[in-house]
Amino acid sequence: MTAPDSHYHEYTIPLLLLALYIRICISFAPHSGYQDPPTFGDYEAQRHWQEVTVNVPLVDWYRNTSSNNLSYWGLDYPPLTAFHSQAVGWVGHSINSSWVELYSSRGEESYPHKVFMRASVLVAELLHLPPLFLLTPSSNLPALALLAVTPAQPLIDHGHFQYNCISLGLTVLAVLALRGGRLYSGSCLFSLALNYKQMSLYHALPFFFYILGPRYNSWRGITEIIRVGMVVILTFALCWLPFLSVADHVIMRMFPFNRGLFEDKVATFWCSLSVVLKVREMFERVTLVRAALFLTLIAVLPSQILLFRKATPQKFLLALTNSALGFFLFSFHVHEKTVLIPLTTAVLLLSASEMHKHSNTETDNDPSPHTETDSDTQTDIHHSTPPDKKHTKPGGCMAPTDTDPTKPSASLTKEATISLPVAWFILIATFSMYPLLERDGLCVMYVASTGLYLSVLHVILRNQETRNPLLLLLFRVSVVGCLVLHGMELSIPPPQRYPFLYPTLNALYSAAHFAAFFCYFNYLQITD
Predict the structure, then answer these.
(1) Contacts with 121 (C-beta within 8 Å, 6 or more apart), sequence order
(2) Distances (CA, A) of 87 to 55, 81, 384
(3) What is the chain's Cα-based Rg?
(4) pTM score, whole prediction
(5) How far apart are CA 84 and CA 211, in angstroms?
(6) pLDDT, tens digit, for every residue of 501-521?
(7) What crossing angle do the helices spanning 469-491 and 501-527 adopt, rounded to 10°?
């Protein structure tokens, strides 16, 4: 370990604890649907799934029966979510059986139950936070600090209330495994992510091409691909075997095309287009499904082809972000919370060295006969290269003013920098979910967590000199735009004719940013 690593490694655990502390603080706020009968919100949905899985036979979990009314928060995620709900439900039942009593427990919001539910999400964070910190260079204190105070996922999981940290954590663990040369473990972990939330499909193409790219043209590689296929099939079989007789019901619940192109005001291409062109009224649903599929594939395939041609760890992270962001912008039936999927892999690019490191060869992901057991044969893109070998693109990398490790206000190495576009993306992703957070009564937590994030980012930017003043100016103008929209919403009531004016403006403003970020991340992958 280099001296700079030793100097900064001591901050990793405190920053990880800070991230947990922020999540605990947010958990004291109201949750989705608090005191809002008859359907309440996502908190009640998660509790109801525990009620169903504890009391109803497994074959009826996804079917409409007298004991499972699917119109009341019916299960609509893959089997692993159902098994997780059952596990949490049994723990809750052992503490207080009334929390999951069939029918009579609906709308349960007692304080002890809320403590239990909030604690269950904190436990689930153990799958999510540690891998994120492990994938961020320990020598990059600014990136670690910004990672610790990133507000979007904590506001949704620990405020609004969901368990996104499980599927996202499994995906990050899969990335970590592949980066460590553990091909089969990574394949299994990502298969588990797919079986927890179907939206993990947003990341499926990059995983497929990252594994396939360097292996399809050799017998040894083809053998490894076959083994990966067997691991994936076995993982899916274990998750789906109990549901084989009702698999059609599960799939119909997982892909609810009857719900429409989008819900509420979400920062996507389709919602933005609908402001001027009422596509949902002009075209049949099947036409919109096909159009969404076509546009999504057109948007994401270029980055995946690039990954297939040169499957390096750097391009893998960019392809994950590009694929997920493309799916978010163009696919069918997207929720505002789904932005967490591209955001998670983008966060791995916070370190400017991750954004702009050039691989010397195409053998970073070269198949090895020791793929599963010998991680030393794999290239570690966090390994420091001599400062004179590093290259920084002009697209927003924050360059240090001094590389002297004895000066605490300066970055220790050129790796100890952040990518401003990624930090900017994190902010806009949080802003885009404000209408949802406002409905949940989470405005105070939104202001506090976003304010903390901006404060930390300001300190980082103040101590680092940007190579692109125009980008920094655009970032500041963007932040002012967010503040202006918030100020207008607080001070000027919307016209009666347009009651959803401000959520619509939020969606349009955020969608424009997401489109720009999508283009930028693709540009990085093309020019890397």
Answers:
(1) 23, 27, 157, 158, 161, 162, 163, 165
(2) 12, 10, 43
(3) 23
(4) 0.88
(5) 29
(6) 999 999 999 999 999 999 999
(7) 160
